[in-house]
Amino acid sequence: MVLDAFSRSVVAADASTAPISTSGIGELKKFIAEGNKRLDAVNAIASNASCIVSDAVAGIVCENQGLIQAGGNCYPNRRMAACLRDGEILLRYVTYALLSGDASVLDDRALNGLKETYAALGVPTTSSVRAVQIMKASSLAHINDTNTEAAGGKRFRKMGSAQGDCSALTAEAASYFDRVISALS
């Protein structure tokens, strides 16, 4: 069951047969106050999803050339396409979790049985984990808007994310990527 911050508060209060606590209401107020930052963070990832995923796959191929040689897990093109597709799906579910502030959608829809599926298909988990690590680093850089013209070159694009401290949101996003890494390991 996918729950957002509001649903979680109601379910918790209902389970204890009590109204939502004062601390619960405070957490909801904080969630609302940080809403624009959350939306900007999700937009920063979603707007750059193709780049984030393709850079991650290119990164694992650069680190392991055997992936694109005959018999490798990114050879032929259909396997490479499947790798890119899976990366985009995982990234999409991370953004869903970030938007709702709840990892259950990520766990239920993407991670449940993923390791077993990859094992059955012969997908190397070390490469998958490394791709997620690269996607994590890139996504967090987009959330924090720390990309620079020197690093981006001609492709540089400043997102202009919400101003202010995004450390809590960055830590939350990192935890979702860590969940994916943990599920694959």
Helix/strand layout:
Elements: H1 5-15, H2 22-33, H3 35-47, H4 49-63, H5 77-100, H6 104-111, H7 114-121, H8 125-144, H9 149-152, H10 167-184
Helix pairs in contact: 3-5, 3-8, 4-5, 4-8, 5-6, 5-10, 8-10
How many helix segments? 10
N/C terminus separation: 24 Å
The CATH architecture category of the largest domain equals Orthogonal Bundle
CATH classification class of the largest domain: Mainly Alpha
Report the CATH superfamily of the largest domain. Answer: Phycocyanins
Major sheet summary line: none
Task: Describe the oligomeric state of these chains in a short phrase.
Answer: single chain
Q: pLDDT below 50 for ≥5 consecutive residues: which ranges? A: none
- State which percent range the strand residues make up: under 5%
Task: From the 3D structure, determine the CATH topology of the largest domain.
Answer: Globin-like
Number of domains: 2
State the total count of DSSP E strands.
Answer: 0
Query: Could you say which overall geometry the principal axes of the C-alpha atoms support?
Result: flat
Helices and strands, in order, run as HHHHHHHHHH
Our Rg estimate from Cα atoms comes to 18 Å
The percent of residues in helical segments reads: over 70%
Overall pLDDT, averaged?
87
Structural class: mainly alpha
